[in-house]
């Protein structure tokens, strides 16, 4: 097995190109399921592209720069890797639930998208209610695609796992596998964004979204960066305890796919946090100068 120092997450897939990310999601899927079964996931991804580009009927283009198309594809690839790792380690998850989980991930942040007659501000104003709005979008989408109602309900329960204030113990999953997939989506949402090579730079965009969305507790940019250190500790606890450690399955994916039995997500996140700590300690009055990557 390769050591984690030989391989970094950002080297594996061009995360700035959604099409490249999606092809990797497809690769992970067809290791255990027929390629023909991927059609509805591809159709959903095509609709996602139309929606975020402002070409979907009755909706404006995405205008939030943190919760954008790249954020969604970061989460989508992470959840597909978790599913693959689970299948390697524990046996194959049910096909229908896997497809539902992938589609739920694709649409999990559609709550930030404005209707075409909503011309005030940006979708960031919906920050505190975006999970419910995302589920509302999926309800109409699943109905339009003539999917059975139980699949929408399942997708809604999975997306609810991304809500940081939601008590996941109160979600009535219909099966253990649905619960695992919901927790994978909740985990992937965190892993994908925090392991991104430009996560620290993108926090500047998140601050603007929080300000417009009236999220309390972040009076300045530097306050958000300082609280990100605590958010990292909270995230580790959430992954391990609330989300029951399902993030561990990604190790089996990386081991089989790349010969590196390491959690490359947590490795990448830890590097980000170490660097963030250095910025805040050494450049507190000019921390922006330490953000070197183009977001």
Q: How would you describe the overall organization of this protein?
A:
The structure is a single chain. Helix content is 58%, strand content 0%. The chain is mostly helical. The protein has one domain: 3'5'-cyclic nucleotide phosphodiesterase, catalytic domain (Catalytic domain of cyclic nucleotide phosphodiesterase 4b2b, Orthogonal Bundle), CATH 1.10.1300. α3 packs antiparallel against α4, α4 crosses α6 and α6 crosses α7. The radius of gyration is 18 Å and the shape is globular. The protein starts with 17 loop residues before the first helix and ends in a 13-residue tail after the last helix. The model has no long low-confidence stretch (mean pLDDT 95).
Order of helices and strands: HHHHHHHHHHH
For the residues shown, what is the average pLDDT?
95
What's the CATH C level?
Mainly Alpha
Largest sheet: none
Percent of residues in β-strands: under 5%
Brief description of this entry?
The chain has 295 residues and is an all-alpha fold.
Features:
single chain, mainly alpha
Which SSEs are present, and which pair or pack?
Elements: H1 18-30, H2 39-52, H3 69-90, H4 95-106, H5 130-144, H6 149-160, H7 176-194, H8 199-212, H9 221-242, H10 250-258, H11 264-282
